[in-house]
Amino acid sequence: MSSQIAITAAEAPAANGHGEAHCTAGFKALMLGCIGVVYGDIGTSPLYALRGAIVAASGSTSSADPQAVLGVLSLILWALVVVVTLKYVVILLRADNNGEGGTLALMALAQRGVSNSKGAAAIVLLGIISGALFYGDAVITPALSVLSAIEGIKLVTSTFDHYVVPLTVIILIVLFAVQSRGTARVATFFGPVMCVWFAVIAVAALPQIMRHPEVLLALNPFHAVSFMTHHGVIGFVTLGAVFLAVTGAEALYADLGHFGKRPIQTAWLSIVLPSLALNYLGQGALLIGDPKAIENPFFLMFPDWALIPMVALATLATVIASQAVITGAYSLTRTAIQLGLMPRFEIRHTSESHSGQIYIPRINLLLFISVILLVLLFRSSSALASAYGISVTGTMVVTAMMGFVVIWRVWKWSAVAAAALIAPFLFLDLTFLAANLLKVFEGGWVPLALGGIVMLLMYTWRRGSRLLFEKSRKLEFPLVELAAMLEKRPPQRVPGTAVFLTSDPESAPTALMHSLKHYKVLHEKNVILTIETAPTPRIDDSERIRMEQLSETFSTMTLRFGFMEQPNVPRTLALARKLGWQFDIMATSFFLSRRALKPAAHSGMPRWQDHLFIALSRSSNDATDYFQIPTGRVVEVGTQVTI
Question: Does 229 fall in a domain?
Fold first, then answer.
């Protein structure tokens, strides 16, 4: 079978949405779960965000500028309100793709509203960019979060200074090692631990705010505007550090399908936002009273006896934040495979009851190596903070652009109204991106390099798959004509059913042609099977299968899966019994064509890209495993193809 999975533009009927999907789960349970999974990243930002912004504004790591504290604090608080609350919680959570969120779900949704091929290609390019940048975020978040938590032990005694990096590496090794066991058991504790975390960081801030109530003036946006207008370039640089406070906002949208809109919104407005605001105000109050607390304002809010317990709690919280982004990378990879942006990878299901809990060994290994290299290269959270932000701001810019298309073409708003709604957020995202780009030479090159590599791989795979599909189609024989010829002059028949997998149902599969050429026999029943990925997350079983009888012995069948579903061909074929097809797995043989690719003298890509596509094709997981076909029922036919 071709390595390309066909993407149909046909739109499935509206899914049940997250309302029915979560009808069996209580609202409080969903809210508790989303506090643990969705808000781990943004919830641990107080560990490093305010300190990084104040250092950028003051130009000193030993003493804070009291006049800059209110301005920076006001910028952080209003960034939380405008970027997270208004853009994501109020607007984008409504732009769901049949209950699913996330950058690739938004891409698939936006594609429905674009009629011309150039517009669709532009949407796919935006999806590739945002998906690639997410991987940069998935690498930096575990390294930065765990490092910033472990650094708290340096405040107990300087003796621990040399143990920060080794401890961080050990924790990350354990974190990635347990991924294969699944997150179901660990996730049970995510919600309660993060609830304790938010409660503690809010309560710890209250004494500081009471000592210096003038810090509440930061709630006035005038201080944010005044800081930016009076500090020029320094204010712009500071804005890049301020953005660290809103990293993790994309998780609200990405996890929409897991928890639903209302639990995510309620948790943010009632627990997460108030806790974060209080903690930032508490850190600001501490710095107003003691500018030298800039060393680590988060941990210095706590009394000495509480430092060790807080380091332990912070470590737990950052591990949870890391876990959320790692599992997010798995989900994104599965969606990218389904949408034809990546080759097939081995996907293991770690839960019998939750299809979304998956483990991808190859992605886990690549993330682990990258995260450890980052920790060893930067060695401190303040140094690594410079590398953070670019990938997230880039994703936010792309999300805003695709959001405009959805509001305009899918929601049927006028272009002017859609632009009026999105333009302010896009302007703010672009400003944050420009501010973060100033950090390119300080470490910002890391996510750009990672994102660039992933973009190149995605583009090469998609382009190469398209060229391979078009070239193969020119060489193949029309299926209808072949079926008619074989009915007139039938070869020797053998009992049973043969299923030929192909990505092009109009042409005779290569495996069928080679079977006729070499074996000169034909099964009693022959099914030409095509697997399509729909632009919706899931497909109802009533819309799963399409069958068409071509002749007495030939029929075509199309199996449709949503981009969030894992294809299981035998289980789905069993559903065809309702359509009158007698399916018996033990009397059925599956024929697949395995292609050995070689670079052609002239192709649609440069020679180096041909070799890259061939390498990606060789790394692709076996179609038998990916489609969960029993290996004992599979016949593979090898062919050589030039591209």
Answer: yes
